[in-house]
Amino acid sequence: MAAWLMAVCIRGMSAAETLALTEAMVASGEVLDLSAIEGIKVDKHSTGGVGDKVTLVAGPLAAACGVKVPKLSGRALAHTGGTLDKLESVPGLTVDLDPERFIKQVREIGIAVAAQSPRMVPADKLLYALRDVTATVPSIPLIASSVMSKKIAAGADAIVLDVKFGRGAFMADVGAAEELAREMVTLGEGAGRRTVALVTAMDNPLGRSVGNALEVREALDALAGEGDEELLEVCLRVTREMCAIAGVAADVEKVLRSGAGREKFERMLAAQGGRLEQGLPSAAVKAAIDADRDGFVEAVDALEIGLCAAEIGVGRIRKEDRVDPAAGFVIEAPVGARVRKGDPLVVVHARSQDLVERVASRVRNAWSIVEREVRKPPHIVARVDRDGVTKAG
Asked: Stretch 24-36: mean pLDDT, rounded?
């Protein structure tokens, strides 16, 4: 098997071969049957980033528009955040839903976000472990089949993908991200699932917060139409794609302004045992890291922020690491902001001052400050569907 993986890395795979591998992986375990849910069921998946709480906003907003959203998610690993860890920062909430409860919640509320059963796609776990020790992880057909086998086994009729590139993403450049997006769309369509992908930038953290409870709080604000403009732009675009692929006609911005998306999110949290009224976890220490010079923020290194976040307990360096739900960063000076020496760049939320001091210099160095005014780069750079790639703008 190791020799075969190396051959794939060197020679690649045809579209038919990659689809055959994906379907074999799906058939290695359970497949969720969602036929009891009426309408077109839409899943949304991100390839992972720093501060990426789009699922927490776009999922409930799409459900408020009338889309059925059955979502199986993962946990944080290395520098990328995990949707399940974010949700579990809400007191009492469970992500371990049996299929009957999961389906009932989607039918009644329109959305459920849960952990994937370990009995789904067991072949992927075995293959990934082997790829990890044989240096065969960076192969686009193998990456695409790994992601899409899990999405197909999750049972949705349609899939909206958010494929990220840049410093804080798995794919380093936009060309590789577009290639991966094309491959995943081809696999989804080949398996009979309507599939659309957006290619989005992850050089800088998305939104103003990085951390589990902090991102839930930001998602609640975004669903009230408040907060970071770039985050809202991405969430609205993803929601529109989910509505379009489901055949649901809705004025997404009007639904957002009505507060229906926030209400839907709160209902979902409550249905899964969440008790928002008890308040989200709060860190014992909140320490600002200040700018050391005047200027404009040119970039915030998403990879370094993600690694520092893992260091203070936001995510995991190893699978067995314990997550601190209150830890994280609140960004005060995003890309494009003008700052003066002594202005706060970011506030670190941690359980001790020692942890703050451990990452302080690295966090400050993640901010690139220049003398000239900075224009924010576009966040969504391309859209991929079965008809090909459309560049933004």
From this structure: 95
Catalytic site residue from 43, 85, 124, 157: 124
Residue with tokens 């942890």: 355
Alpha carbon distance 339, 194 (integer Å)? 45
**Domain positions in the chain:** 13-276, 282-370
Is 150 among the residues known to form the active site? yes
- What architecture (CATH level 2) is domain 13-276? 3-Layer(aba) Sandwich (3.40)
- Check if 349 is active-site: no
Our answer to whether residue 292 is catalytic in this structure is no
Q: Which residues of 218-257 are buried (b: 16+ CB within 10 A; e: fewer)?
A: bbbbbbeeebbebbbebbbbbbbbbbbbbebebebeebbe
Q: Is 146 known to be catalytic?
A: yes
pTM, two decimal places: 0.93
Class level of CATH domain 282-370: alpha beta
Catalytic residue among 44, 150, 151, 262: 150
Note whether 201 and 381 are within 8 A (CB): yes
Q: Among residues of the chain, what percentage have pLDDT more than 90? A: 85
